[in-house]
Amino acid sequence: MPRVALVTYDPRPEPSHDRDLPVLLAALRAAGAEADAVFWDDADVDWGGYDLALIRSTWDYSRRVGEFVAWAERCGKATRLANPPEVVRWNTDKRYLGELAAAGVPTVPTRYLAPGDPADLPDEGEYVVKPTSGAGARYAARYTPDRHDTAVRQLARMHAEGFTAMVQPYMRAIDTGGERALLFFGGRFLHASRKRAVLAPGTAFDADKVAHPGLEPWTATPAELAVAERALAAVPDAPELLYARVDLVDGDDGQPRLMELELVEPNLFLDLHPRSLPLVVAAILEAAEAARASSGHP
User: Fold this and answer.
1) pLDDT in tens, 178-202
2) Nearest Cα to 73, choosing from 62, 90, 86, 61?
3) Which of 208, 211, 220, 279 has its CA 20 to 30 A from that of 188?
């Protein structure tokens, strides 16, 4: 039987927010795999005992990026890690958006302010400030020029904690068309979802936010699929990706632009797309069996 680790985080004392995890565990076990949910930072885990370590919901990593990337590199030496360590290293820093834009992928325009940089913020139009390493809209906020002083305080707080900030124009189409998430698994397009705007005007950057408000199934358009495929093709060194989620929003011209490329721990929204579960399980088993065959393990 293939041995699969579904890699997650330790949420205690709170319950886990990963609704995909129990569904995947049950489906993999029903398909004949030995599947376990394991914490990425559990020092007692023998990663070499698994044919495949599948990163699923390591949702606390953004506060410990260096530690997480080091773990990914260690794990990738012990077994097959999906996605690979070099992808994890690249994708945990959202400065990758600049690389994709340089490669011709339509992206949301982005500037970066590292610790020590001046607070060079827009003086017109709405804009968003958020960290290059973040999840669930943590440390993200939406501003207008009259709230400049508040935005500066956010930058100071982020820089004091070592974060580099991203500054983007607020994409007004989110308020009407929402943000679309296109999910790829096993090298094929799987399904799409749409959510409403996360950042309400005036919400504090350090306030808790609903990560996926108004989530609903979505039928991806040809234009959205084309941008997604361009983004995936532009990932450096053409790595083998077991999964990817491409988050898109429309620009002022009505054409889709890349908001984020999620290659580390994207929510799969399987509760919204139950028909995708057998396809995901089949792709995981295929990857685990291929890894076992290449390693020579019985």
Assistant:
1) 999 999 999 999 999 999 987 777 7
2) 86
3) 211
